Amino acid sequence: MHILFLTDNFPPEVNAPASRTHEHARQWVAAGEQVTVITCAPNFPKGRVFDGYKNRLWQEEQMDGIRVIRVWTYITANEGFARRVLDYMSFMLSAFIASLWVRRVDVVVGTSPQFFTAVAAWAVAAVKRRPFVFELRDLWPESIKAVGAMKQSMAIEALERLELFLYRRAARIVSVTHAFKQTLVSRGIKADKIEVVTNGVDISRFSPRPKDAGLLEHLGWQGCFVAGYIGTHGMAHALETLLAAMQALSTHPHGQDVRLLLLGDGARKAHLQAKATELGLDGTVRFVDTVPKAEVARYWSVLDASVIHLQRTPLFTTVIPSKLFECMGMGIPVLHGVAGESASIVQREGVGLVFEPENAQALAASLLQLKGDAALRERLSQAGLQAATRYGRTALALRMLDVLRRLRQRY
User: Fold this and answer.
1) pTM of the entire structure?
2) Which of 4, 88, 116, 269 is the most exposed place for a label (fewest CB within 10 A)?
């Protein structure tokens, strides 16, 4: 079977969509299938093309047996709604044109969060008369409204009509959460066309390791309790809550040796850096730019606790942050500030402590609780390692491959 997969994020980018697509495609190739990925020059999140690549009409490479075709797009940083839409639309057009030159395709997959990529996948599938699969990673454009980037308007209503059009035209929808499936069913989409394949962890890359002594020495944090947030610094993540918690701990007698590492980039990073300075946190909070994927586990290793956080909004109760599974694989206790389905996983698997989103005092209290209880940290760590085996990326990739294989048999 030849799978054509359209995504505007792919390694060497290190965000969640890039990692999921790469790890799934790698497993599909290992299972004997042919995979072609159409993507753009790697540039996320700063809008600068990575070294070794150029923003060309067409460039091609092989990555772990995957044929990767990179096309020209309008490139911008991950900030500013209008410019990002131009980015999305340029990829939609370039990916559609490039896909026409990929021969003997059996199934076409388009992934979100934004769904202009899915529009291209639907159009390609229609031209080639092949089934279109919509991989649903986010309820877009609802998430735009949730973070306040746009209010209800004619433009949003047009995007919502397009969203429903894609759901209805997809031969299958692969949702990353059960809550997404429930939302779609409530909007009139047939339940039997929606499959749930959650995010997971590549245990071969994310597994327990000793603390990186060299990194701790570089940070100057030997002997400290180190918490960390690793991921995008965007509007949805409300990372001001983490800074407020650190400010509260700075005057607490047992919080003086707590440190916070924030690794990643995003639209709010400059604001957060300025805020940390304003709060007098430069000695206890450290910002690190995005590092290559091979280096990420090194930073995970120095954490005593991982903070996962999103805004307090009903939409995000349907989200399961992919970094939760990486924490499990590394055996790192989780402080989870996301309500809903993902919080239920944390509690059911016993891998961390749940606190109310955007509640800095609750986060500060959880940090102190973990810091002061080594037995609790060990219990949460071991539970994470056990849970990781149930969310292994290999099994999840093969589950999605089974969806694609069954679909191919019908066409």
Assistant:
1) 0.85
2) 88
* CA proximity to 140, closest of 122, 120, 167: 167
Spatial separation of the C-alpha atoms in residues 288 and 298, rounded to whole Å: 13
Confidence category of residue 157, pLDDT binned at 50, 70, 90: confident
- Give the closest residue to 333 by CA, choosing from 287, 283, 294, 369: 369
Looking at 224-380, which runs of residues are DSSP E strands? Answer: 225-230, 258-263, 285-288, 305-309, 334-337, 352-354
Amino acid, single-letter form, for residue 101? W
Q: Where do the domains of the chain lie, and which CATH numbers do they carry?
A: 2-200+392-410 (3.40.50.2000), 213-391 (3.40.50.2000)
Q: At what angle do helices 341-349 and 374-388 cross, to 10 degrees?
A: 110
Strand order in the sheet with 285-288: 285-288, 258-263, 225-230, 305-309, 334-337, 352-354
Q: How many of the other CB atoms lie within 10 Å of CB of 356?
A: 14
Tokens of residue 377, six digits:
């940290």
DSSP 220: T
Reported as a single tens digit per residue, the pLDDT across 333-375 is: 999 999 999 999 999 999 999 999 999 999 999 999 999 999 9
Pairing of strands 66-71, 58-63: antiparallel
